């Protein structure tokens, strides 16, 4: 979409660095191909290096981690435990949690449509499952983002108007009070409500993962950085495929408990091992590799 001279300048600016890092291998690969096609640079796909204008740049990919200690401390806090009690008191048999920013790229509207399709395909689940949507209002000073948040609300209301009965609410947007900041462009959601929602979810739909207690959960993940890390234990979902999302929810909810626990435990081990400190160490390791090469 950019004019040729801007595309070149952006790539030349990035290649002025010793190391360029991405969250996923796919993004790294695309950047390497772009350097070759846009700049005509000498690209070595085996070593992930780019030689251009007398410089050599290492291109790496390291999915960013989290700080497990922060989540360990948070999950047992009074605020989280109180919110958990509230969820337990009102939740139906099954709880699906969706965690997202209200960003048009997150396909939240399609996700709600997928949940409605799931309820259509499995009418026996109506009244037995709720989707708790934990949505952080994002960039509400940008008209497109504000309009998208309104579209998210409209879709949730449409699903609820169609299916709700006898006190059962299919999509719960109000549980966190997360939409109070509409029009004010501020962060309306605290971390504690997000954590208590995740503690009680089966399954969770999100683009990231945090270490938690081993409960009966499965993760339908989208094509984001977390997917590259956790795909082995998650259910892969194309965010544009409404039917596929509905099927993934069904698979997660009907998965044998032992398999759920095994998948979650493997996820927890991986996330704890590849925490924020490991991510920083990987970045520094890339710089050490460059320094050693220069010294040699």
What does this structure look like?
This protein has 296 residues and is α/β, with parallel strands linked by helices. It has two domains: 4-64 and 276-295, no CATH class; 68-272, Glycogen Phosphorylase B (Rossmann fold), CATH 3.40.50.2000. The protein has helices at residues 4-14, 25-39, 68-75, 78-90, 108-121, 143-163, 191-199, 225-230, 242-254, 257-273, 276-295; strands at 19-22, 42-44, 49-52, 55-61, 94-101, 129-136, 171-172, 204-205, 220-221, 235-236. The strands form three sheets. It has a four-stranded mixed sheet with strand order 1-4-3-2, with helices on both faces. The protein has a four-stranded parallel sheet with strand order 7-6-5-8. It is globular and about 70 Å long.
What are the salient characteristics of this protein?
296 residues; 11 helices; 14% strand; four-stranded parallel β-sheet; alpha/beta; Rossmann fold; four-stranded mixed β-sheet; 2 domains; 50% helix; 10 strands
CATH architecture of the largest domain: 3-Layer(aba) Sandwich
Q: For this structure, what is the CATH class of the largest domain?
A: Alpha Beta
Shape: globular
The ordered H/E elements are HEHEEEHHEHEHEHEEHEHHH
* Fourth-tier CATH superfamily name of the largest domain: Glycogen Phosphorylase B
Q: Order the strands across the largest sheet as they lie in space.
A: 1-4-3-2
Low-confidence stretches: 175-194, 207-216
Measured on Cα atoms, how large is the radius of gyration?
Answer: 22 Å
How many E strands?
A: 10
Mean pLDDT: 84
CATH topology of the largest domain: Rossmann fold
Count of separate structural domains = 2
Biggest sheet statistics: 4 strands, mixed
Range of helix content: 40-55%
